[in-house]
Design a protein that fits this description.
By secondary structure, the chain is α+β, with helices and mostly antiparallel strands. It has three domains: about 100 residues, Phosphorylase Kinase, domain 1 (2-Layer Sandwich), CATH 3.30.200; about 90 residues, Phosphorylase Kinase, domain 1, CATH 3.30.200; about 210 residues, Aminoglycoside 3'-phosphotransferase, Chain: A, domain 2 (Alpha-Beta Complex). The protein is built from 14 helices and 16 strands. It has a five-stranded antiparallel sheet with strand order 1-2-3-5-4. A five-stranded antiparallel sheet has the order 6-7-8-11-10. The chain has a four-stranded mixed sheet with strand order 9-15-14-12. A hairpin with a 5-residue loop joins strand 7 and strand 8. Helix 9 packs antiparallel against helix 12 and helix 10 packs across helix 12. The longest helix is centred in the last third of the chain and has 22 residues. It is globular. It starts with 18 loop residues before the first helix and ends with a helix.
Length: about 425
């Protein structure tokens, strides 16, 4: 069995005793060469993890073998289930660019897939070199975001290396691709029609059969990659961009939101918030009492319903592209309808988490964002912002720290929950 030093503070998981070993890059680097038939590795880096307590752990590693880099995904199974999963995987496997396409680590009951092999995402091999078969400009591909068994985002390039767009490929049956494409097209048109300095990608083509959507490329640099000196101005511009998106709902969707493929946004709804508190406490018993107390306080202070708007649904530093002329709002897959405070609270919670783990001070950035927002439309009342920020600190930041195994946030988990309590009591970041 893989041995490791535990840094996440999780309670033991009897169903997944191999969990900690698969999360330890050093332990994995020692184990993989023998499984893959390699002499050694130059580097082995954990890129992503998705953990479901008592059910599964999925990880993505980037390996450098000295001659090239490879993406490998693994899934940890409860005892007795790894072998059958491996046998099914072998049937669908394609060559793995110099590595075995699928391997079973019998000792840890984990199955490893060499990209473009994946447990649920099929046909990725053909999309790495489509040679114009999907879209005339799309000749080659590079994986830029990979969530095993769920989705992959590919940079679609022309023969000269320029970016033709970004392709999203989803697990079979998980997404209404035509509906999602229609949503992107309507939102892009609505934002362009406002004549403001905010844009979003358009759908270039899509295929329900392949569960594939090709989106136009957007100019700019991710907010997350900007120098600190540029952040205040950027957050003010981002506030105006999110306000413009909220105002674009009628033009983008018409009056019939369900017909446009949008559902109410529920991640910060009270049942989800309460369930998040339970899961956070289960994974980390040291904060369980605080998480339960916070959920109870949130249950007793739910704000009055506000007029629903078009929500981005996933406001964070990777989903805003900034250039001199405009802000590009990308990754609208989770867009929905609901109170504007959902998006704003989510962003404010992210700013506070980033400060706790060593990022820039949140208060000034939050004030800049809210000032930019207020220049386009009135922001929600303070009590709604306080509640949604506190809810997002629990149901997004703390919950994702657990299920994405985000070590910096896990090391400040008690502080995150304490910040949520303080937000409810006194108001913060405003």
């Amino acid at each position: 069995m893989l041995t490791t030093v535990r840094t996440h503070g999780f309670a033991a998981d009897p169903e997944l005793p191999q969990r900690d070993g698969l999360l330890d890059a050093e332990a994995v680097a020692e184990r993989l060469p023998a499984l893959l038939g390699l002499g050694s590795l130059r580097s082995c880096n954990l890129l992503r993890a998705k953990y479901r307590i008592g059910e599964s752990l999925r990880v993505v590693y980037r390996l450098d073998t000295g001659s090239r880099e490879h993406l490998l995904a693994a899934r940890a199974f409860p005892a007795g289930r790894g072998g059958s999963a491996y046998r099914r995987a072998v049937i669908a496997a394609v060559p793995g660019d110099g590595l075995p396409p699928v391997v079973l680590d019998q000792e840890s009951e984990a199955v490893w897939w060499t990209f473009p092999n994946d447990r649920r995402l099929l046909g990725l091999s053909d999309l790495m070199h489509p040679l114009g078969s999907v879209h005339p400009s799309w000749q080659r591909s590079e994986a830029v975001e990979y969530a095993p068994e769920r989705s992959v985002t590919l940079r679609a390039t022309a023969l000269d290396g320029t970016t033709a767009g970004y392709a999203k490929v989803f697990a079979p049956g998980s997404v209404d691709v035509a509906g999602l494409a229609g949503r992107y097209r309507r939102i892009a048109a609505a934002l362009a029609g406002r004549g403001e300095t905010v844009q979003s990608p358009d759908a270039l083509c899509w295929s329900d059969e392949r569960q594939l959507l090709l989106l136009s490329a957007m100019p700019g640099v991710r907010w997350a990659d900007l120098p600190t000196a540029d952040l205040l101005g950027t957050l003010r511009r981002l506030g105006a961009a999110i306000a413009a998106l909220h105002d674009a709902g009628p033009a983008a969707l018409g009056d019939d939101h369900p017909a446009a493929g949008l559902q109410p946004f529920t991640r910060l709804a009270l049942p989800r918030v309460t369930h998040s508190a339970e899961l956070v406490g289960l994974a980390r018993p040291d904060v369980a009492a605080r998480a339960r107390r916070l959920a109870a306080r949130l249950a007793g202070a739910v704000p009055a319903p506000d007029r629903p708007v078009l929500l981005h649904g996933d406001c964070h530093p990777k989903n805003a592209l900034v250039d001199a002329q405009q802000i590009g709002l990308i990754d609208l897959d989770q867009a929905g309808t609901g109170a504007a405070a959902n998006d704003i609270g989510s962003l404010l919670a992210r700013l506070r988490q980033d400060e706790l783990i060593g990022g820039p001070p949140a208060a000034e950035l939050a004030a800049a964002f809210l000032a930019g927002y207020a220049g386009v439309r009135p922001p929600p009342v303070d009590s709604a912002l306080h509640w949604h920020t506190a809810a997002a600190l629990l149901a997004e930041r703390a919950m994702r720290a657990v299920n994405r195994v985000h070590l910096p946030a896990l090391q400040h988990l008690d502080e995150l929950l304490a910040e949520a309590e303080r937000t409810l009591s006194k108001g913060v970041l405003l």
